[in-house]
Amino acid sequence: MQAVRIYEYGGPEKLTFEEDVPDPVLGNDSVLIETAATSVNPIDWKVRSGARQKDFPLRLPAILGIDVSGVVRAVGGNVRTFKPGDRVLAMANATYAGLVAVDGSVLAHLPDGCDLVDSAAIPLVAMTGDQLVRLVAGARRGRSIIVTGALGSVGRAAVHTAKKLGLHVIAAVRAAQLGAASALGVETLAIDDRAAIARFAMVDAVADTVGGETAAALFAKVKDGGSFGYASVLPEGIAAKYPAVTVTRVYARPDASKIREFADDVRDGKFVLPVSRRMALRDAPEAHALAQSGGAGKIVLVTGR
After folding, report:
1. Per-residue pLDDT tens for 166-217?
2. How far is Cα of residue 257 from the mean position of the Cα atoms in its chain?
3. 3-class DSSP state for residue 260?
4. Record: fold of 3-122+273-302
5. Which of 37, 41, 149, 303 measures 20 to 30 Å from 93, CA to CA?
6. Could you tell me the residue ranges of all domains in the chain?
7. Sheet architecture: strand order including 15-18
């Protein structure tokens, strides 16, 4: 099969497109997917570079990638809910490839009306945003929550979940993005305006997708007993300065039913996840360079299908 592999940690040039990588093995509980597309996520280049080697060690050579959309080619003997020809979507492993073996328990049917290629953008960002909000805010309607990076893919997912839960949502974006953020149908806050932050009311929770000094500036806005959840990196020692705030890092977990729910909402126009570029799988090095430089938006990598 075709796949993109890395043989050593490093820059985007370490991604190697190959035509004759061995096919994945189909287990009794797994489903073999003929990949339509995968997508590029920040964790991909952090793993590739070696920056996250401690958390996500690789056995080299390795295939990167977490998102996959495609069509079922074969199913294991214990699988009853999927059949060849089904359109599917999942969080998985080693998805920069023409074929991906996925445990049937984490696989979701892709509803009619969803684009097979662009749907590859959904799984990881949707699960990260969804689980981030649920962790810090629970299901208590009316609680206030700031979502940083609300126009990013994870941020959009977080805002979507927060609105569905009945939370009072504040989209924290740069001042230049306030107009675009207002289209999300929530209150907005300029995260690069320290005076605006200082004037802003205290909130019950923060769902942070940005990290760094942006995150640090918002700790002081969380009520005692409130929660701060993050999916990026916080400045060292910042959490210790706010002992009355519960601080938790989120690592997204597969959830087939939630992935399907997000896909349904995309189909129905209730959730919009912009895809900025479609690029060929063989162009993964260029895609990584673009994504890592910032401002490139969400990129999907399309296989030969």
Report:
1. 999 999 999 999 999 999 999 999 988 888 888 999 999 999 998 888 888 8
2. 16
3. helix
4. Quinone Oxidoreductase; Chain A, domain 1 (3.90.180)
5. 149
6. 3-122+273-302, 125-249
7. 15-18, 3-6, 62-63
